[in-house]
Amino acid sequence: MPELLDDLHTMWQRDLRAADKSPRTITIYGQSVRFFVAWLASHERPATLDEMTKAAVATWLGDLADAGQAPNTLRTRFRGLRRFCNWLVAEEFLTRSPMAGLEQPTAAAAPVPILSDDEIAKLLKATGGRTFEDRRDHAILRVLFDGGVRISECARLQLEDVDLDDFQVIRVQGKGRKIRVVPIGAKTVNALSKYLHDRRPHKHADSPALWLSQRGAMSVDGVDERIRVRAAQAGVENLHAHRFRHTAAHTWLSSGGGEQDLKRLMGWSSDAMLAVYGASAAEERAREAARRMRLGDRL
């Protein structure tokens, strides 16, 4: 009987959990398998191991590119399915990966646009009220913009991770479950202080999670939804959490902050990420640097 890809995918997810991979990592890896299975079904092909051939994978990736998938998304899909194929080989379901010899998509992604001061002001104004939701969403936006943290890091914050007095920092859990401490400014401290005050009488106040909704602790998707709701209210288009992170990196570099310090604050393990995040407004920073140096005025 042919091996079903859905069954193998379930086994792989169990292996990933046993290897202590984060839930979000498991989800992202698994999306590649699920989307490939859906693609097979759309072409009236059985979702079995026999159908996972080099030609099929290459055609699927090509269809994704033709459909206008962003380069970063293509690379994510490629890496997720490659990990699954490598697992199939390791578990001896296959003798050789069908992705051996396939090149990873390398098209350069367009730099993520940074948020303008006007857009940030509109977002903060949209959350400037006194309701519980206003206090919470305002604090979330401040943490994302000021700390430059990933949305998953923001969503996973616990009460014990917040220090508003002694050091004025938040402690976040990044990729690979690495812990790092991120400084926050006085306005973010103030926003968190007001939110924590209004959080006390909340019906889920005994939860260790920092961010609460009426249903309890907020998930990554819950935080993402609030960002999009507030963006619509503020009239800010195409807003996603990563734009805050790119904006924080740009602001740091344009203010003269050191690259290695930024790398540590952002939780990057590779210098390559400096180029990725620095690209969002690199030309603007270069122009400002040229104006400051005034090389043509030296004679």
Automatic annotation (TrEMBL):
It comes from the Bacteria. The keyword Glycoprotein does not apply. Belongs to the 'phage' integrase family. Pfam families: Phage_int_SAM_4, Phage_integrase. Residues 1-89 form the Core-binding (CB) domain. Keywords: DNA integration, DNA recombination, DNA-binding. It comes from Tenggerimyces flavus. The keyword DNA-binding applies. This is Tyrosine-type recombinase/integrase. InterPro entries: CB (IPR044068), DNA_brk_join_enz (IPR011010), Integrase-like_cat_sf (IPR013762), Integrase_catalytic (IPR002104), Integrase_recombinase_N (IPR010998), Integrase_SAM-like_N (IPR004107), Tyrosine_recombinase_XerCD (IPR050090). Residues 110-291 form the Tyr recombinase domain.
